[in-house]
Amino acid sequence: MNWVCYLICCADDTLYCGITNHLEKRLAAHNAGEAAKYTRGRRPVQLMHVELCADKSSALKRELQIKALPRGEKQALCGTI
């Protein structure tokens, strides 16, 4: 399995970080309102950043690292500032 950590930008300009082993399916679920509760009311979402991870454990660790970053650093990861 190929695990990734990703950042998406929601319609209200907030950023959401998550992990998955099937990125296209997960993005479709976010945009269909069937994924994270946070993104259900903030559709559509747009993929901004993806990092490949060795396994689920490393993906979870990277997700926590990204979630701890200030918004400006998350935007820098996405290349939006």
Describe the model:
This protein is an alpha+beta fold and 81 residues long. It has a single domain (3-78), classed as GIY-YIG endonuclease, CATH 3.40.1440.10. The protein contains four helices and three strands. It has helices at 23-32, 37-40, 56-67, 71-78, and strands at residues 3-9, 15-20, 46-53. A three-stranded antiparallel beta sheet has the order 2-1-3, with helices on both faces. A hairpin with a 5-residue loop joins strand 1 (3-9) and strand 2 (15-20). The protein is globular. The mean pLDDT is 95.
Uncertain regions spanning at least 5 consecutive residues: none
Radius of gyration: 12 Å
Taken from the alpha-carbon principal axes, the silhouette is globular
| Topology order in helix (H) and strand (E) letters | EEHHEHH
Q: What do we call the CATH homologous superfamily?
A: GIY-YIG endonuclease
Going by helix content, strand content and strand pairing, the class is alpha+beta
Provide the number of structural domains. 1
Please give the share of residues in helix.
40-55%
User: Please, what is the average pLDDT?
Assistant: 95
The fraction of residues assigned to DSSP E strands is: 25-35%
Q: Count helical runs.
A: 4
Distance between the first and last residues' Cα: 32 Å
CATH class: Alpha Beta
Strand order of the largest sheet: 2-1-3
Please describe the biggest sheet, giving its number of strands, its sense, and whether it closes into a barrel: 3 strands, antiparallel
Number of strands: 3
* CATH level-two architecture: 3-Layer(aba) Sandwich
CATH fold-level topology: GIY-YIG endonuclease
